[in-house]
Amino acid sequence: MRVLDQAGVPSPRVDAVALAAYALGLPRLELVLAPDPAPAGFVEEFAELVERRRGREPLQHIVGHTVFRYLTLRVEPGVFVPRPETEVVAQAAIDEARRVAATGRSPLVVDLCCGTGAIALAVDTEVAEARVVAVDLSPEAVGLTRHNSGAVGTLRLRVEQGDVRDPALLAELVGQVDVLVSNPPYVPPDAVPREPEVRDHDPDLALYGGGADGLDVPRAVLAAAARLLAPGGLVVMEHAEVQDAAVREVATSSGAFAQVATLPDLTGRPRMLVARRNARRDVEDSQP
């Protein structure tokens, strides 16, 4: 633990215990006394794992999994590791899907920029009536979402490779989606993350949103939401805390959304846009 603390690891004790459990082949470890004697090879393997973590390799990459809400998901280098803050984004999508289900309909939910499939699978497993479609540009993310769906999902999840900036994406679902949720890349080019675990290990494709403000991809998400959502459908999108006003302006100025608002994350920071598709899209879409 001291080695990890000196290396600046944010949660040295938690990580040390997790690494020890991994070395022992246990799902978790609650140590009162160290095992005596230690299993053969444990000391050497544990030391190697600690050294990797000391070098700020993400704990999730070392142990190969992470927990998101009620799910244990496989993670791999090259695919963005889901964070606890995004569980609130998933909750907003789940709440809306449950509201739709309570009316007797089967809610259609789309997760854009799905990464590991964390949000999509949370909806898939927590809202029995939901039909969920997950999309990502990265082939690695698509493959990992499919793996996680097979491991922990209901097997109803549809996973597609596609670019959120493509106006033909999910063309067969135009005007039918009840909830569109996304944790897109949104980091501006001059705001390189300070944490080595993020800066050196999360893929640039999942971090940097494009444009001077980092909002090119989020703008594309909102354009997709305007196209895909049914009248009254809800868009839920994560963003950086300094982007709340700019994201609200994008949504409002598009003319496609009403009830545009920002909600807080677990720490109270403004990190999530929610907005409803205008109910009169038939009139709006007929305008030149």
β content, as a range? 15-25%
* Discrete helix count: 12
Mean pLDDT: 89
CATH hierarchy, class of the largest domain: Alpha Beta
Order of helices and strands: HHHHEEHEHEHEEHHHEHEEH
Give the number of domains: 2
**What's the β-strand tally?**
9
How far apart are the first and last residues' alpha carbons, in Å? 64 Å
Helix content: 25-40%
Strand arrangement, major sheet? 5-4-3-6-7-9-8
Task: Quickly give the CATH architecture of the largest domain.
Answer: 3-Layer(aba) Sandwich
Q: What general outline do the C-alpha atoms trace? A: globular
Largest sheet: 7 strands, mixed
GO molecular function: peptide chain release factor N(5)-glutamine methyltransferase activity
GO biological process, one term: methylation
Domain Methyltransferase small: 106-187
Enzyme class: transferase
Please sum up the structure shown:
The protein has twelve helices and nine strands.
How is this structure best described in words?
Methylates the class 1 translation termination release factors RF1/PrfA and RF2/PrfB on the glutamine residue of the universally conserved GGQ motif. Keywords: Methyltransferase, S-adenosyl-L-methionine, Transferase. Residues 3-64 form the Release factor glutamine methyltransferase N-terminal domain. S-adenosyl-L-methionine binds at residues 136, 183. This is Release factor glutamine methyltransferase. With 288 residues, this protein is α/β, with parallel strands linked by helices. The protein folds into two domains: 2-55, no CATH class; 68-73 and 78-286, Rossmann fold. The chain is built from twelve helices and nine strands. It has helices at residues 2-6, 12-24, 42-54, 59-63, 86-101, 118-126, 139-152, 196-199, 204-207, 216-228, 244-253, 281-286, and strands at 65-68, 71-74, 108-112, 131-136, 158-161, 177-182, 229-238, 257-264, 270-277. It has a seven-stranded mixed sheet, sandwiched between helices. Helix 5 packs parallel to helix 6 (118-126). The longest helix has 16 residues, at 86-101. It starts with a helix and ends with a helix. The model is unreliable at 282-288 (pLDDT under 50).
